[in-house]
Amino acid sequence: MRLTRIVGSSIIALGLSTVWAETVRELHVFLPDNATWNSSTPMIYEDGQSHALTPDPDHCGWFIRKYVDEEIPNKVVFHTDDDEELRNSIGMGGENSDSLQAIPLADVFQVFASEATFINTLYFVADGNRASELPSATKGWFTERPMITGTCSFNLAATIYDTDASLHPSFSCYAAGGEGCQAQSGLAAQDVERAKVLEAINACLGVTTGLVDSTLDKTIKKPKLSAAGKKCFIDEKYFNQLFNYTEGVNEASCFDIPFTRTNHGKWEFNSDNFTSPNLRIPVPGGFFPVEGKTNELVKSYFANQVPAPAARTKHYAEGPIFHGEKLRKIDSTEFVPVFDLTCNGPGWNKGHDCNGLFADAAETETFFKSINSTIDCVFGWSCTDQAPTNWPLFTEGSETKATAGVPRWSSNVSVTEGNGGRNQHFCAEMHSTFRFKNGLKFSISGSDDIWVYIDNKLAIDIGGTHLAAPGYVDVDKFMPNATIGELYDIDIFYCNRRTTSGDLKISTSMLFPKFASGIRVENSRYNTDPQKVSNFNTYKVCRAISDGTSCTPTTIVCDTADAPKTMKIRYQLTTDKTGTDATKTLISEAEFTANPIQLNGIFDVSNPMRPVINENKLKETFNPGTYYLIVKIDSDQYVLQLQVKGTTSVAERRIPASITNNFSIAKSGALEITITTEKMNIAKQYAIMDINGHVISNGKLNSSDTRVKVATAGSYIVKVGNNYKRINIK
Length: 730
Description:
Number of strands: 40
Largest sheet: 10 strands, antiparallel
Distance between the termini: 50 Å
Number of domains: 4
Shape: globular
Number of helices: 14
Strand content: 25-35%
Mean pLDDT: 84
């Protein structure tokens, strides 16, 4: 059966009914597996109203729309949550369709109902590339799920600076009666007076704000100690060692933090469910990224690094403990756990002042019960019956799992059957970018210091040594002047400075791409010029260059004043994705160089780092199809796919016949070519190119037959509008 049976007017001819006996029907859709869709909430537009799709928890990349006692809609398209105008929506033919056609979903269900494998569920592969790989006579529609998966995880690169209280005076261990693991008398780490060390550590127990400057140097990308911060870190010298390799004080290494997509559509890393690598006995829970290092491994991370074995000292450690059900409850407005919204900060003002809190478990319990008298459980050791599903239990005082036991493991350095403690006392820094759109949220919690900068401004400030404390950012309010589609920096700094636990949780609707060396092109969606908002699509070209000596690329050039001087950007428009077939080149590199504004302003690369495409003219001038604007810098290239659809109206099922630019060419005399068109071409232009794509002649079509002379015999490419043909002149 071919799906063409259900397209267009043939549906009406069949006179199919949309009355169903079943009460539950499901539509499963596999959406484009790219950065735009993966950083958005996918929406389904149904007969004039949009709904969020639900991620399929069991099948990565798939989303579900269930119809329970509902009529199936007749006009459906898919779009991202920031595309309310449906400018880049997907309809019947999927992502790469030449035209946008609303899906007549009720009729699609009715037609497939006759299939033997149909059980009230349809599967639609809207990702054009994946659909083309699947055997299908029905344009990506199936009654059984195709065995494909999408991107449901990514890694955020972190640089870890591993040290110890014996090497750095700002690190400590909690012990009965006060801080431990510093020198018992006299001098502590780096010859600092022990009394001075303990005074500084005690000055920032619990959440302590204001320890760092509120802005981040966009070049250095390291936090700077504030004047007030010296009470906790003694001096800038010791603070700067937290996030810089310092011989004899720390060891720098790389670590990829794994994020997965949750059922709520967020990207999340949760150390409660994480098993730290290189443990002798794998035990879930806690963030300890620097286990199992050796001198050889340390030397391999960075050139000229000198091992500091004392940095790998293990200390007594305890696993994470869950919060009670009411603190884990999802807030109905922000759609994150209630606990995440507790503390006010630069990016959130609907919580509480947390200064001094989270220093002690008993005081923390008292605080939560004082702000909400219905909370009966804060930490899970007093309410094991409220444990999350599948939370592991352990034999008390050990790392041994048990069917009945305590909800928190313990690892003692003197016990041989476990892992002998954990390598605590380290700091981590993470740098990435995200594409701004409305509705972004970011939450983080952990012990101890956490500072998060967004667009080089402090957004979360929960410094100090403390139990896992939360920070939250409503990005819309924090960045009121941000431009939709623009790339912005996010920089995360974290330290575990005090035993016995180590926790880190990050949950966000941002997508942090792994930005390796090469070119990246981001769609800005809208131009800042209000006169161009509806017509122009502005793109942003960035290039990352890795020097091979850090965990992330050290040089990312995006739209700086010096960029066009330091690197030459070249453009090519073609219908060949590789760009190697000269016969399919529509606008060559040489043409773009000679005239950066092409086709009466459809393409404008006057600012090579900010190419602009006039979408309206593109749709009016180009035939429906797929075109590729290739961006080239040195040997790197990035292929920007442009899809021209027959219409953007989702209210029509049938697409009107598009304007054709068909033409023919023939040798009509000595060194003469005649171009014959069916009717006046919409572009009214022709071009004669040599086999390398260089334009040797161009002009206007003056009638249905246009004669053009060439200088010598040879092979030529004739381009009329956006179609081309090849001819040999002998």
